Amino acid sequence: METKLTLRMDENIIHAAKKYAQKQGVSLSKLVADYLRLISVKTHSAKNRTGIEPTPILSEITGVLQKASRRKDLQKEYHDYLEEKYL
């Protein structure tokens, strides 16, 4: 079920958002709805795992770091590199 939502914000933000939506080939309503859906899903799933709601920046960079098993490999590679360089 769709419901009308009224948002109040700076006129410049609205203008820029409309231009962005137009470049993306979507309506501003769809753009906002997709964004809200995205952050609600990310927040909901992340909050369930940790009990803490992540900040938008944290949500954005989540998954960027490598898995712990790969990190051990990198530590060994770096250790080997330092041994070769200094011994």
SSE blueprint and pairings:
Elements lengths: L10 H14 L3 H23 L5 H6 L6 H19 L1
Give a verbal description of the structure.
The protein has 87 residues and is mainly alpha-helical. It has one domain (11-86). It is 71% helix and 0% strand. It has 4 helices and no strands. The longest helix is centred in the middle third of the chain and has 23 residues, at 28-50.
From the structure above, extract its key features.
4 helices; 87 residues; mainly alpha
Specify the structural class: mainly alpha
Largest sheet: none
Described by its quaternary structure, the protein is single chain
What's the average pLDDT?
78
Tell how many strands the DSSP assignment holds: 0
Query: Count the helices. How many?
Result: 4
- Taking pLDDT < 50 over at least 5 consecutive residues as the criterion, the unreliable ranges are none
User: How large a portion of the residues is in β-strands, by DSSP E?
Assistant: under 5%
Categorize the overall geometry.
elongated
Taken in chain order, the helices and strands follow as HHHH
Number of domains: 1
Distance between the termini: 69 Å
Radius of gyration: 22 Å
Give the % helix: over 70%
